[in-house]
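It is worth pausing here to work through a concrete case rather than discussing structure prediction in the abstract. The textbook approach is simple: state the sequence, then state the predicted structure, then interpret. We follow exactly that order.
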Amino acid sequence: MKPLHERLHLYTEADDTYIFVPVDDGIETRSITVHRSSGDIVLNGPNTPLPSSARRSSRTIHGIVGVISLSLSEYIIVITGRELKGRLLGHDIYRASDFDILPLSPNVSVHNPQHPVEAHLLALVSSHLRGGNFLFAYGWDLTRRLQAQWESQEDAAHKSVWEMADDRFFWNRYLQTRLIDANANQDPDLQIMDLQESADMMKIHLQELVSIYGNQYLVNLVNHKGYEKPVKDAFERYITEYFDFHTECKNMRWDRISILTDILKDDLEKEGYFRLDASEPEPLKLQKGVVRTNCMDTLDRTNVVQGALAKFAINKQLAELGILPAGASIDDYEDFSKDFREMWADHGDAIATAYAGSGALKSDFTRTNKRTRKGLLEDGAKSLLRYVKNNYFDGARQDAFDLVTGTWIPRKSPASAILLTAALIFIFIHGIDYVSWPRLIPPTDVIYYNGPGYRSGNHGKGLQNNIEVAKRMKWLGTKRTRLGAEHIELGEIKKRVD
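Step two, the predicted structure:
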């Protein structure tokens, strides 16, 4: 793939333009000019000279995240800080650690917005950037697994990273659109909507997984009794096998996860793994299937089980390479085993923090191979943190995701901004009793669902249990998952899959 520039200098020409100039790194230099008044983005010809009036900013840019359009202005988001997280096949992998938001409108201040709605939307974007774990590389496609990259290497040879990236994991795909065009333990309210659409979507989901990854081995970790039982029962109407995580591993006997790997052992060996030898024209092995795990949030139990499966796989790989002797395990080599466990636990913490607001539960087992009482206490603290964040702050976090991914697009209208202010006040007074629901695209179709299925006794826990309120709040009544754009009074809703 075509390499990316690792550093850019930012120049400004009064209030007219932003000019991003690559630092000479052996790659053909083509600067980008952004005209602030029109919003036009121009990819300049090679070695285009700078205007004489251009002034260089002191900041160094490590990458352009993209362009986002809010109510009063468009903004360019740039990476101004990065942390080296590791190396993958000789390529540096970074985490974006600091950002700048540059307004296109000369009359808009990021630090002191003149309108409360613009201030609210900017705060959502800023909190999303600060709280995320955004990884990137300049010469490696992080969105696709090695086998997929090998299979498309000829096609990718002369293409840009964005042309080959898997959009499902291209975290700033929506924000890059303009630039690409320029270059051509508190139980929540449990509800099961027993609809034909549910079965249809399950079928489509599994068919997609098979088409991308091959054979699927489905491991259901939902508890077989108590609060989670209705979910298990609904799942088993389509999938009959599951691993009773809580029963098998009760009393902190987490070593018994080996029961699951023993059950799957033959299938794991049959499906194999991708093995490529740089001296050979063809791969020595191809992976033909994967294990799909789910629990309630597909976070904590899933991370523990996937960690066990990953250890099984790496033991197999190292043994076949002759690095491990027959019958040995990475557990016999404490330094390597510790690095493996820490890497896996850090990975789980990053995903859990982005999704649930705290590090992963049960991470003491992932890090040490032992379930401890200290770990139980830490899980209690994390659960309390999740409860607070998910009930009082999660709505704003979801709004930030919807805004940054283009699921909700603000309209360019101060009048709409005033409407949003009034709507937010109305929702706060009349709608939020306990839970901070997303405000840009509230899930009213789920909250007020009254069809077949199952619902626990909490009845919404958020918006008042009064359908008339939702009817009066017209902009709240918009369905969230219809295909295509749907217009509401304040912005546009695109598709979001929950």
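Step three, interpretation. The first strand starts at residue 8 and ends at 13. The two ends are 33 Å apart (CA to CA).
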